[in-house]
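Hi all, posting the design record for the shared folder.

TITLE: backbone redesign
STEP: 1 of 1
STRUCTURE INPUT:
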């Protein structure tokens, strides 16, 4: 399989995952829970929160959701929709509806054509211990805290660059960044690449730089890149600003 074919296979899988009927593109609402129980339009029962957990009372039963800050949420099924409970400072609920307009209008993600020059090798420098790192969010006034296990150092056009990495999936790294295309041809707030260190080395394939959910929907609370993760050149690779934001 050629380099371009391999990238196209990855892109097809990426867009298939985005089109999940209960995925990020299916979001239709976001509500922050209050301390007093209350109902929300179209949703069963009453919802509220305290300092420790979120609660849902329905048909005489109460469920408690104690979640990790900035971590994955839990979901409950209500008819044809799924209600996600998550913690972002306080607790919130979001509805995933397979009839969501963004999902139904999804036409794929515009991207730069792949090129091998954007596959760069760098060095991975782990910290002595993971560093809790606070970053902002696309929602004003909100912040996220992530563990940063180390940094990635690489060169491009003769200049050295350093990016702080967060823990990613399956023992890998998730690297949030902006660059000189951000807000021009790519989404302004952030993009990310995944990488897996091997023997102190890491491959950064910017052809596979992806948008976070906030690039597609206003009902996401995505983190901003950590301080210093702006690249001083244009990364003309990976996903561009979604059609939905065009």
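Okay, here is what came back for every position:
SEQUENCE:
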């Amino acid at each position: 399989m050629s380099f371009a074919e391999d990238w196209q296979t990855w892109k097809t899988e990426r867009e298939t995952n985005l089109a999940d009927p209960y995925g990020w593109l299916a979001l239709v609402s976001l509500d922050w829970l209050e301390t007093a129980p209350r109902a929300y339009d179209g949703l069963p029962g009453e919802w509220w929160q305290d300092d420790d957990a979120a609660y849902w009372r329905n048909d005489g039963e109460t469920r408690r959701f104690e979640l990790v800050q900035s971590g994955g949420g839990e979901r409950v099924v209500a008819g044809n929709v799924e209600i996600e409970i998550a913690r972002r400072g306080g607790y919130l609920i979001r509805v995933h509806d397979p009839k969501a307009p963004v999902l139904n209008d999804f036409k794929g993600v515009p991207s730069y054509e792949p090129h091998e020059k954007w596959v760069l090798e760098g060095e991975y420098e782990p910290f002595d211990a993971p560093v809790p790192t606070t970053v902002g969010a696309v929602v004003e006034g909100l912040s996220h805290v992530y563990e940063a296990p180390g940094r990635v150092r690489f060169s491009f056009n003769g200049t050295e660059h350093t990016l702080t990495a967060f823990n990613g999936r399956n023992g890998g790294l998730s690297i949030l960044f902006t660059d000189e295309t951000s807000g021009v041809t790519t989404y302004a707030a952030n993009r990310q690449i995944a990488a897996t260190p091997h023997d102190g080395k890491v491959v950064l394939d910017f052809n596979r730089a992806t948008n976070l959910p906030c690039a597609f929907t206003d009902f996401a609370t995505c983190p901003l890149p950590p301080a210093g993760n702006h690249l001083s050149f244009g990364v003309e690779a990976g996903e561009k600003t979604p059609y939905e934001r065009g």
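COMMENT: The radius of gyration is 20 Å.
Let me know if anyone wants the other runs.
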